[in-house]
Amino acid sequence: MNILKRKRTSKCTSGALVHEYTLSEPVDMSFIGLLGSFGSVEKKVMGDLVMFTFQKDEWFTLKGMSDDPIFYTTCQKSDSKAAEEFIDNLLTTYNNQQQEDGSGV
């Protein structure tokens, strides 16, 4: 799983930036489960799909849906670099776990 596209979609009234990430593969339950290792995850089951909101401390939020290759992040502009590094580390960890599990990438 890799990032195909990252774009800033909006700026909140609080000054936080919203970025849209498009991945090479849809988000799966393994990815959502991995998020729980790094912060809190709220899930809402909607039939076969799961909407999720991940929060890391107070500075970073990631929202998306299972089986969708797009997710959104929110953070303050001053935390943008840390947010990008977190996403990169998250995807590296996910890809390593998929290889170890024999699922491929």
UniProtKB/TrEMBL annotation:
Query: What highest taxon heads this organism's lineage?
Result: Archaea
How is this protein named in the record?
A: Uncharacterized protein
Q: Which organism is it from?
A: Methanospirillum hungatei
